[in-house]
Amino acid sequence: MGSLRTVSSALSTPVPVGTDLTARNPGPPRNPVTPRNPVTRRSLTGPANLTAPAISTSPSPVVPSRVAASSTSASPFRVVTQSRNRDTGGNSGFAELPLDQALELYAPGPMFSWPELQGMALDGVLRQLYQQGYVHPGSAVTPRLRARAAAICVPRFARQKVVAGRLTAAWIYGCAPEPDRLALLVDARHRISSLRSTRGCTLHEVRLGPMDVHSMGGIMVTSPLRTAVDISLNVPAERAVPALRSLVVRRELGVKLRLVALAVDAVPRVPHKKAALALLRALDEEMATESQAET
Description:
The chain is an alpha/beta fold. It contains 9 helices and 9 strands.
């Protein structure tokens, strides 16, 4: 009872105004609040210790900006999306890139449509290589690049079944003008019923050996020797002679008229064989006479 009276008296005792109640009854200590780390604001321009790269003043070629590039280490190209002009609010359309970062060959696809490529060719940004294949005006056209341009015209499912030959192969090697239609060879042991609907191409059933064909630019192409043999046998003389001459002149191709004549002579039961041998013999004598006149 004494303790109850003490508590009641303590509760009834008036507390002066301004008295700190927490000082009289501080209570259990609270957990201290750990101050947060201050937020470091980064500059949009990057760290202060980095210097801006030097800007080259040399003119760089203008290439299409929406360049689709592979991310593998084998390709030096990078993805460049179409930029937007902030001043005018319109699409700039093109971006300046070094030539080694531009695509070698442009074709209709998700990045550009055929009308867009044609428009860029009219503006001088690109130039047509063959059919739907376009290249940069300053690009060096190589046999591999021509083979890639020819492969665009061949359906994807048929690229490993057909072989570019005759004047088409000569054009790929840089020894003949651009063909109107691709001359595609098909081994007689393979069925070509599914390939007959291929547009812009002429199919020929032939016998192909393992040394007659090699891969280039995503399509199979006849070797330079086999190309010369097929041209001498199947192409009219007025078109065959310039192509054969160019194949022989390019020493890196390794074509010699004597080897071509031996290969033609070794082919059994082939039409126009005698005419082809006579053509090769006359061309050999003509080139020998020209060589003697130069010396």
